[in-house]
Amino acid sequence: MTKEILRVRNLVKNYHDAPDSRNIIDGLDLTLNYGDFLCILGPSGCGKTTFIRCIAGFEDYEGTIEIDGKEVRGPGIDRVMVFQDFNQLFPWKTVEKNIQYPLKKNGVTDKEELKRISDEHLELVGLKGYEKFYPHQLSGGMKQRVAIAKGLALKPKVILMDEPFASLDAMTRNRLQKELLKIKEKEDVTVIFITHNIQEAVVLGSRVVMMSRQGGQLKIDVENTIPKPVTPASPGYGEMWNKFNSALEAELTDSDE
Amino acid sequence: MCRRQVQKLKSNENQDEKKGTIDEMRELLRKDATKQVIFIICFGIAWGTIYNMQIFNPLVFPKGTDVFVNLYEGFVYDDLLDMTMYSMELIGKGLIIGVVLAFVFSGISIISKTFNAVYNLITSICDLLPGVALLPLAIMWFGIGEGVIIFITVHGILWPMSRNIMDGFRTVPSMYIEGGRNIGLKGAGLVLGVYIPAAFTSILSGLRVGWARAWRGLLSAEMIFGTTASGAGIGWYIFSQRQVVNIAGVLASLIVIIAIGVIVEYAIFRVVERNTVRKWGMLGR
Questions:
Q1: B112 and B10 in one domain?
Q2: Is the pTM of this model over 0.95?
Q3: Rounded-to-integer distance, Cα A84 and Cα A53, Å
Q4: Of residues B144 and B11, more confidently modeled
Q5: Of B9, B26, B55, which closes a domain?
Q6: Exposure pattern of A204-223 as b/e (b: 16+ CB <10 Å)?
Q7: How confident is the model at residue A109 (pLDDT cuts 50, 70, 90)?
Q8: Is B285 within a domain?
Q9: Is the Cβ of A139 closer than 8 Å to some Cβ of chain B?
């Protein structure tokens, strides 16, 4: 049985930062099932990030966003965000403490328990042995792994990822994509993943949607039935890629006119 | 055969050692510290030469060694040590009060926008007032005693410290703040957990400026009204040395003041810096 985890109804977001500011998101509906891996594609400026920030609780909005039937009003640990920025870890804490600190602040006080959780999650992202390192001693890819480990350790209902791999080189990105899929299989979590990279969306997502540039509507919404692991040689990959690519191009030419 | 080999090895080692010491010497000469030590030696020689040429009255240009004799005598026979400790105790009290107040006020100014506006104004105004200028007012309010000195030191540290903390807080990357909010931090928890460590570089430089100002304010205050009911500080010591026209004694107390400055910088600020922002990679190389 599929269970609903996220329900977005008639979401409207306007920053009201200018007298004629337009609605970035204008009446968006989305329902997401438990355990889904949703990839959101869209041209830059379409409101992908705004959307995910609304879900995270960083923005005010009109309409409804419900997580597990509970309305979102402000940030909470049931929705953990992984950002694109490599500097999302606290530089004044070691890798281990970066993972333990949020847990500590949310009621886990037993030292051994904290150690066990951080060790387990560092192993999950392949960073065993880096417990005592400070973030500035890690590469960008390693920092993103720690950020993912930190998010997962909180056992959120939904993990929100805002282009976490966009600043990485292609090789590292491919490797992290594979690892993220593996982690997703092991961990019991729903993922919303924003990207502007079609390949990434098709490789990762169990459901892929595309937002339009005007009004942030869902222009395409498909189940990704291509069996994992998805490679460019997988049957159906080309069609899917083409479908999104031409839709994206259409978006861009539309707005250029 | 075997022994010869061993000998040969040994002589090789000796040569390496010699080469090592020469390299070390070269390395030492290249260092800034060495250059600075050489400068100090040259300065001492120049001082001695000028003194020996008797260009100036020895009353205003004392013999170099006299300064150190005075330093020694000041500590052993006079009250220089007690007076120094008394000054340190006062500045210690003032610093603790000033730092705590600076953190509390700057912390509140993050949480409340109204308080932030008002406190910004107060800080900007008070930051412009030299501590010495407030001395007459402070004497009227607190009388002549410890209270005035502590008032002046608190005034010295509170405003530059608050200014730096608030500037530091303002420039905390939004990434850290959102990260903190995401894990459920808010209000005081967010200030303690994110703002203070993230702004630690500014906080440290605020401490440095505040300490320097407080130290200056304290010395001037001590000089102006001299001994308090409970004791006299190093500022008063300098002043009393001038009154008896003992320039070597004046210079000796200046050396004490410099030494305190050096100790505070190297034993406190550098150590804190090394164990915090430097370790965290938050300073440029």
A1: no
A2: no
A3: 13
A4: B144
A5: B55
A6: bbbbbbbbbbbbbbebbeee
A7: confident
A8: no
A9: no
Structural domain includes residue B284 = no
CA distance B85 to chain A (A): 35
**For residues B64 and B251, what is the distance between their CA atoms, to the nearest angstrom?**
10
The token duo for B282 is 């938050």
| B16: Cα within 13 Å, side-chain hemisphere | 6
Domain count of the fold of chain B: 2
Tell me which residue has tokens 């150190």: B68
Length of chain B: 285
B182: contact with A, CB 8 A cutoff = yes
Helix, strand or coil, per DSSP, at residue B123? helix
Per the CB < 8 A criterion, the answer to whether A24 and A14 are in contact is yes
Instruction: Identify the domain boundary among B16, B36, B55.
Output: B55
B194 with A90: Cβ contact below 8 A: yes
> Is-contact A51 A221, C-beta < 8 A?
no
In this structure, the answer to whether residues B109 and B48 fall within a common structural domain is no
> Residue B285 — pLDDT band, cuts 50, 70, 90?
very low
pLDDT value of residue B172: 92
- If we measure between CA atoms, which residue out of A103, A102, A81 comes closest to residue B175? A81
Residues B222 and B246 occupy one common structural domain: yes
| Closest residue in chain B to residue A151, using alpha carbons only | B183
DSSP state of A233: T
Residue that is written with structure tokens 């430089």 in the block: B205
Instruction: Specify if B282 maps to a domain.
Output: no
Task: Kindly state whether residues B76 and B30 are assigned to the same domain.
Answer: no
The minimum CA-CA distance between B260 and chain A, rounded to whole Å, is 30
Amino acid at A27: G
The ipTM value here is: 0.84
Q: Domain range holding B10?
A: 1-55
| Structure-token pair, residue A60 | 């005010």
Do B153 and B170 belong together in one domain? yes
- Alpha-helix runs per DSSP H in A132-213: 140-153, 170-186, 198-204
Q: Which residue in the set A87, A92, A106 is minimally distant from B173, CB to CB?
A: A87
Separation between Cα atoms, residue B252 and residue A7, nearest integer Å: 77
Q: Identify whether residues B34 and B117 lie together within a single domain.
A: no
Kindly report the CA angle at B192 between B88 and B284, in degrees rounded to 5? 75
Residues B22 and B65 placed together within one structural domain of the fold? no
CB-based contact, A102 to chain B, within 8 Å: yes
Q: For B96, what's the count of Cα atoms within 13 Å in the CB-facing half-sphere?
A: 5
Tell me which residue of A157, A105, A149 sits closest to A128, measured CA to CA: A149
- B182: domain CATH number is 1.10.3720.10
User: Do B184 and B233 belong to one domain?
Assistant: yes
User: What contacts A238, CB < 8 A, 6 or more positions away?
Assistant: A232
Least confident span in A26-30, B136-140, B207-211, B280-284: B280-284
Per the CB < 8 Å rule, is A81 touching B183? no
Q: Is residue B90 part of a domain?
A: yes
